[in-house]
Amino acid sequence: MTKHAHQPPVRFTPRPPLGPPARVVGRVTRPLEDIYHYVLTLPWSLTIAYLAGAFLAVNVAFAWLYTLEPGGIAGARPGSFEDAFYFSVQTVATIGYGVMHPESRYAHVLVSVEAMLGIMCNALVTGLTFARFARPTARILFGARAVIGPADGSPHLMIRMANWRHNLLTDVRVQVLLLCEEIGEDGEPVQRAIELPLVVDETPILAVTWTVKHRIDAHSPLHGPDPLARLRAAGAELVVCLRGIDDTFNTEIHARHRYTLDDIVVGAVFESVLVPRADGSRVLDYRSFHRVRVVDAPPPP
Prior knowledge:
5 helices, disordered N terminus
């Protein structure tokens, strides 16, 4: 009798990118040392919040400077910080409604400085926004579980993935790494990456789904009795790395996914996601994408 493993919701929810293997302490950096990279790695919500805060801060600072000389802005109420703030917004954004305008030399100098600053900031924000939108991204859906089960008459480790965009990815290559913690000769812990050989590790075209397989033979680190318990003691985990060319943008894309040993189901296979129809076509059913079916696996070689 077969049973189904828990099926999570079918939606594209990639895990965060793989971070450094250890928490970093004692690294001193300057605030503007790598600000371009920092801004590109921020989530959109924080990026917008920082830009809004900077816009508000610049206009508040210039509004205060404008109020230092009463009467410097024609059309503004004398001593009104609110009018000075809105005049600053019109200046930095090059709006210029014409209701308020600089009256004194001091105000003209401030307007000149603020206009130059506004041009520079607009150029920087435009460049950063374009860089974030133009950066190539991969929308690869990885199965919630990896399985160890029978395939072609022998046990295999199998990992399922899909191209969520359903465009063409070309020259696609996949690597599956087993990361283990070991104690080096000097007694220090080190992380060792073991590449698991795949039955097929590259494909010229990936449009829909792909299940990569690693044959568990005598040379495999997954060979032997209760291999997961042995690897769990070594703090092991699986990392899947995919790279290819996005045919739409003609740019190289990368995707990574991490599986803990608890994510591996032993003695199971994936449910089929390609459903044949009467007219000979097939339907891709994502409702079964994360579903696995427990089977009686053959003994390891």
